[in-house]
Amino acid sequence: xxxxxxxxxxELIPNGASxxxxxxxxxxxxxxxxxxxxxxxxRELTVIANDTASPGVGIxxxxxxxxxxxxxxxxxxxxxxxxxQMIAGKMAVDLVPQGTLIERIRAGGFxxxxxxxPTGVGTVVEEGKRKIDVDGKSYLLETALHADFAxxxxxxxxxxxNLSYALxxxxxxxxxxxxxxxxxxxxxxxxxxxxxxxxxxxxxxxxVDYLVTNE
Length: 215
Fold this sequence. Notes:
215 residues, alpha/beta, three-stranded antiparallel β-sheet, globular
């Protein structure tokens, strides 16, 4: 794990990269990294996340900056800019049921090819997907999701990169940290090793590649 300034962290992200970004309507999103992506003018990004927040908040900033080529998310209902770009054909949007989305990410992080779920059977969700019968019940095969980068926000990070989260800001963050090639983390507080009890470490240091300094 290396500590790094936010501008240096974002310089690692090329145009066209795929990003998993933590957060639920902006709660638990690494805002400083998102702001720097906008400042550096990154383009043609694919974002995998729970939602696109709202205009000017979290991932909504990337939408507003027209930095995204594609979004894979469970919900866009509170961001009219996402809807407008989708309808105009300027951004592809793949809507995935929330439970299916997080399971596909988890599968990616745990080395699985995908998951079987009954969610979406008999609806438009099953179009183009394999249907598998198990004990007389139909399931859809939902393939695993991976990304080039996971952008994670934690409440506490120690000096080696162990992470702990606060309440609902935890959301997708620990799961996306497992499913990306490179993990970039911001944290509310940096603390010495030992302050976070081993029982409270949710994301271990071995998974974290870069910890953004608090300046």
